[in-house]
Fold this sequence. Notes:
The protein is α+β, with helices and mostly antiparallel strands. Helix content is 51%, strand content 21%. The chain has helices at residues 2-8, 16-24, 80-85, 106-115, 117-143, 146-156, 158-163, 166-173, 177-187, and strands spanning 27-31, 36-38, 46-52, 55-59, 66-71, 75-77, 92-95, 99-105. Helix 4 packs across helix 5 (117-143) and helix 8 (166-173) crosses helix 9. The longest helix has 27 residues, at 117-143. InterPro entries: cNMP-bd_dom (IPR000595), cNMP-bd_dom_sf (IPR018490), RmlC-like_jellyroll (IPR014710).
Amino acid sequence: MQEIRNNLEQMAKLTDEEWAVFSSKLICEKVPKKTLLLKKGHVENYLSFVAKGLVRYYIPGENYDHTFAFAFDNEFTSGYDSFITQKPSVYTIEALSDLILWRISYSDLQDIYAETKIGNTIGRFASEGLYLQKSKRELSLLTDSAEKRYLNLFTDQPQLIQKIPQKYLASYIGITPQALSRIRKRIY
């Protein structure tokens, strides 16, 4: 649980009282590999912190899935747009490995916002970070070649190259697994 506090304190310092309120609402869950944390068409009810494991976000397709994000150890994961609007998700979130999650429900998070001064500050910083990450990815998909997007992973997100199966990595950068194989042959 200390990892969560450390992560939050990168955004803003928490008093012991604020941390006590926040941590009292957290639930630890162990989730097996291949479990769907959020299924397309369902409402996201949790904001989760990945203490251990790997998560994939994707839009299910008839012929193949469109992977668009991942979450790793010490990162938050959620169908955040569904979480904040309380409307059904248009994508699915899947455990790619066994997970240990610390979770907080939508209603409990609303209580934290109401009960603590720091809650809204952390919420704002977290939202801004998610927005910047999403913006960077969208701009890369619009302006960079597939090879450049792949090469950028080495500097921006090396854990993707090391831990993600090639078919998901190809989908993430917007190409087929065969096209990724050709890029990898040219580079190596």
